[in-house]
Design a protein that fits this description.
single chain, Ribosomal Protein S5, domain 2, Arc Repressor Mutant, subunit A, 14 helices, 29 strands, 31% helix
C-alpha cells in the first residue's frame, strides 16, 4: 500500500512516500524536496552467520549523472566505482545510524541512498541522512531512531539551514550534524577559525531543524503503523562472564597498568590465551563458547579501562584525563622534498611531506555539480607496519579517504589565496606509528611541512582527539584529551578538533552511545582548546624565527599582467616571440584572454630571466638610459641591437666607438651583448642608439 506525507520545515517543502518503488527491500523511501529526488532503501539478512560477533553494516551513497541530465565523462560512459565525495557521504550516513541498532544484532544490513534527480539550489547531505533514517524507520529492521540530519552554513554572521552550493561559497562554516530529538549523535565539518561558542551556537541551531525532521519522520511511521519483527540477538552468557571475571580480572587489571602499547597488548594477549586454554580444558568448550570466552575477556578489559578512569582519575597509560602524550617535532627531514616534517605524539607518528606544483598538476574530477578542480590535496596513508601488523597493501580504503579529507579541511582555511601563492599543493601524511589520533597527527605534521616548505600559511594548525567515558544510568562522565587507541576502542566518543590559536578549522564527532548533550559538548570544547594551544606551543618550538623561503628544489611560479590589447605582441608572429622566451628560459608560459601571464620555471634564475624578458617587452623605452642589448643584425651603416624583447634600435657606425670605424664587423659580431645608450625615439617608434656614449 502506497503511503505519502508532506511537511514544511522552514523554507523547505518535503514530501515522502513508501510502498511504490523498490517494494522488495525491507524498507524504501522516495524523498522529494525541490527538484531533488532521493531513493533510500534498506535490506537485512534474515539471520546472522554462524560465529558472527560484530554488526556488518554497509552504507552506500551514489549520485547518478542522469540526475543532472549529463552523460558521464571519460571512456566508460557509466557510473563506475564510488567517487571520493560519494565515499565521504556514505561515511556520513553510516556513522550516526550505527549506534542506533540494538546490542547483539549481528544480521548483515545494507543502506543505499541514490540521487535520482538533483537540484543545484538544494543541499543534499541533511536530506540524505533523513531519507536513510526514514527507510530504516519504515522497515521491519530493529532501529532505535529516527534520526534527523542538517547542514548549516554561516553567511555574513547569519546561520543558514541547508544552504545551496552557491551560498556555501560565501559561508565561513560548513557543518553537517545528525541527532535525535534529545541530542546530537554525529558532527562533521570545517570552519574558518570560528570560536567554540560560535560552533556551539551552530550546533544548537542545527538541532532545532533536526528535531522538526525527527517529528515529521515519527508522524510518518505512526501513519503507516510499522511493526518491527522479532529478531535473534546475540545473548551474553552472564554465568560464563562471571567465571571468566573470577579467573582473569586481577590479571588483566595488572597488565593494564603497563603504559607501553605493544608490551601491554602482548601481556593482555598472553592472559587471554592462557584463560581460553584453561577454560577449554576444564569445560571442553565448543567453538561458540570459545568465542563467548573471548568476548567476555574483551568486556572485562573495557570495564577495567573505564573504571580505572572513574575511580582513580588515571588512564591506562598513566596520564591524567586532560594530559597530552609527549610530543616531538622535526622539520626538513627529506632533502629532496619541497617541505617535510615528522610529528610524534606518544606512540602515534606522522611523516608529512609537501610538494608544490603548477596549475597543470591540479586534480580534476567530475560529480553532479560538474567538472571540478582542486589545488590543495592531502592524502593519508596507513600502512600495516604502523600498528605492527602484516597484511596486503592496496589502494586507500574508506577510512584513509575519510581521515585524509578531515586533515585537508583542517589546513585548507589557513592556506594563502591562489593569486598570492599560485601553486598546487599536495600534502601526504605517512603514518609511521599509530596508537590513536593519527588523523590529528596528520594535521600537525602537515602544518609543519607547509611551514618548512616556505608556504605562507595564515597560522599553524594543530589537532587533538577528545574522548568520553560515561557511566550507565548516571550523570557521571569523564572527558579525555588526546585519546590513545585503547580509549578510542573502549570509550564512548571520538571527537576530533583541529584549529589555530584563533579558532576551529575542522571537526568530526562519532559516538558509540545514543547521543551527547550540549553541556558535555561545551566542556569538551573548552578542554580541547587548552590541549590544542599546548600542542601549538610545542610545534612552534621547532620553527625558526622569520620567514622560510621556498625549497631550492621547488618550481618557481610568477604571475604578471599585460594589457589585453597587447597580448599579440607577447605571442609574436606565429608564436615566434613567446617560443623564443620559453626556449631561452626553459619555462612554461601561459597567457589567458584577460592578459594574465603565468610563468612556471624550474628554478629561481629561470623565472627571473623570463620575468625580465616579459616585463622588458612592455616597458617604456627611456631616453638617456643605458641598456644591455644583443646585436641582432649587422649592416654596412651600423648594427641593429635588441635592447628589450622585441624592441630593436639602430646604432649607427659613427656611434659605435670613439675612434673611426671602417667596418662594423671589426668591432661587433651578431649575437654579441653590448651596452648602448638611447639617444632618441622618433614618432614612428624608431630607436636611435649609441655605443660610444655608453662606454
Amino acid at each position: 500500500m502506497i503511503q505519502r506525507l508532506g511537511v514544511n520545515i522552514g523554507n523547505e517543502s518535503i514530501a515522502v512516500e513508501t510502498g511504490n518503488w523498490a517494494k522488495q527491500a525491507n524498507g524504501s523511501i522516495v524523498y522529494r524536496t525541490g527538484k531533488l529526488v532521493l531513493l533510500a532503501t534498506v535490506c537485512a539478512a534474515e539471520d546472522f552467520k554462524e560465529g558472527q560477533d560484530f554488526f556488518p553494516l554497509t552504507c552506500e551513497y551514489t549520485e547518478k549523472m542522469y540526475s543532472v541530465g549529463r552523460i558521464p565523462g571519460g571512456y566508460i560512459k557509466r557510473e563506475a566505482k564510488p567517487t571520493e565525495s560519494e565515499i565521504l557521504m556514505s561515511r556520513i550516513i553510516d556513522r550516526p545510524i550505527r549506534p542506533m541498532f540494538p546490542n547483539g544484532y549481528f544480521c548483515e544490513v545494507q543502506v543505499v541512498v541514490q540521487v535520482l534527480s538533483a537540484d543545484k539550489y538544494v543541499s543534499v547531505p541533511g536530506h540524505a541522512l533523513n531519507a536513510a533514517s526514514l527507510a530504516l524507520s519504515v522497515s521491519d529492521i530493529p532501529f532505535s531512531g529516527p534520526i534527523g540530519g542538517a547542514r548549516v552554513g554561516r553567511i555574513d554572521g547569519k546561520l543558514v539551514i541547508n544552504p545551496s552550493n552557491e551560498e556555501m561559497i560565501k559561508s565561513d562554516l560548513d557543518l553537517i550534524a545528525a541527532g535525535t530529538k534529545e541530542c546530537l549523535v554525529m558532527i562533521e565539518g570545517e570552519a574558518k577559525e570560528l570560536s567554540y561558542k560560535e560552533l556551539l551556537d551552530a550546533l544548537k541551531f542545527a538541532h532545532e531543524y533536526i528535531q522538526a525532521s525527527v517529528k515529521f519522520q515519527e508522524d510518518f511511521v505512526n501513519q503507516i503503523g510499522i511493526v518491527k519483527k522479532d529478531v535473534k540477538l546475540k545473548q551474553r552468557d552472564d554465568e560464563l562472564l562471571k567465571k571468566v571475571r573470577d579467573y582473569a580480572f586481577e590479571k588483566i587489571a595488572s597488565a593494564n597498568k603497563n603504559t607501553d602499547k605493544l608490551k601491554r597488548a602482548k601481556d593482555i594477549q598472553s592472559i587471554n590465551t592462557e584463560t581460553l586454554e584453561s577454560f577449554v580444558s576444564q569445560m571442553e568448550a565448543t567453538d561458540e563458547q570459545q568465542k563467548d570466552i573471548k568476548n567476555s575477556l574483551h568486556e572485562l578489559e573495557a570495564e577495567i579501562v573505564r573504571e580505572q578512569i572513574f575511580n582513580e582519575g588515571v588512564r591506562a597509560d598513566g596520564r591524567q584525563v586532560d594530559e597530552i602524550r609527549p610530543i616531538s617535532c622535526e622539520i626538513n627531514v627529506l632533502p629532496g622534498a619541497h617541505g617535510s616534517a615528522v610529528f610524534t605524539r606518544g606512540q602515534t607518528q606522522s611523516l608529512g611531506v609537501m610538494t608544490l606544483g603548477t596549475i597543470s598538476d591540479n586534480q580534476k574530477y567530475e560529480n553532479i555539480e560538474g567538472q571540478k578542480e582542486k589545488i590543495f590535496m592531502l592524502h593519508y596513508n596507513f600502512p600495516p607496519f604502523s600498528v605492527g601488523e602484516v597484511r596486503r597493501m592496496s589502494g586507500p580504503g574508506r577510512r584513509e579517504i575519510g581521515h585524509g579529507n578531515l586533515a585537508e579541511r583542517a589546513l585548507k582555511s589557513v592556506l594563502p589565496k591562489y593569486n598570492d601563492f599560485p601553486y598546487v599543493i599536495r600534502m601526504v601524511s605517512e603514518i609511521l606509528e599509530s596508537n590513536g589520533s593519527s588523523s590529528m597527527a596528520s594535521v600537525c605534521s602537515g602544518s609543519l611541512a607547509l611551514l618548512s616548505g616556505g608556504v605562507p600559511i595564515k597560522s599553524p594548525v594543530a589537532g587533538v582527539a577528545m574522548g568520553l567515558i560515561t557511566a550507565p544510568n548516571t550523570d557521571k562522565y569523564a572527558i579525555l584529551t588526546d585519546i590513545a587507541g585503547l580509549e578510542d576502542h573502549f570509550g564512548d566518543m571520538d571527537f576530533k578538533l583541529a584549529g589555530t590559536r584563533d579558532g576551529i578549522t575542522a571537526f568530526q564527532m562519532d559516538l558509540k552511545v545514543g547521543g551527547v548533550g550540549f553541556n558535555i559538548l561545551e566542556n569538551v570544547f573548552i578542554q580541547a582548546e587548552k590541549g590544542r594551544n599546548y600542542i601549538l606551543e610545542e610545534m612552534l618550538k621547532i620553527i625558526p624565527e622569520g620567514s622560510i623561503s621556498l625549497s631550492i628544489t621547488a618550481p618557481r611560479i610568477v604571475i604578471k599582467y599585460i594589457p589585453k590589447d597587447r597580448i599579440g605582441e607577447l605571442i609574436g608572429p606565429g608564436g615566434k616571440t613567446i617560443r623564443s622566451i620559453i626556449e631561452q628560459t626553459k619555462s612554461d608560459i601561459n597567457i589567458d584572454d584577460e592578459g594574465k601571464v603565468t610563468i612556471c620555471s624550474p628554478d629561481f634564475d629561470s623565472a627571473q630571466m623570463a620575468t625580465d624578458m616579459i616585463e622588458g617587452m612592455f616597458a617604456e623605452i627611456e631616453i638617456g638610459k643605458v641598456y644591455e642589448g644583443k646585436v641582432k643584425r649587422i649592416t654596412d651603416f651600423g648594427a641593429f641591437v635588441e635592447i628589450l624583447p622585441g624592441k630593436e634600435g639602430l646604432c649607427h657606425i659613427s656611434k659605435i666607438d670613439h675612434k673611426r670605424v671602417n667596418s662594423v664587423r671589426d668591432i661587433l659580431k651578431e649575437g654579441q651583448f653590448i651596452k648602448v645608450k638611447v639617444l632618441a625615439v622618433d614618432r614612428a617608434g624608431r630607436i636611435d642608439l649609441s655605443r660610444k656614449d655608453a662606454i
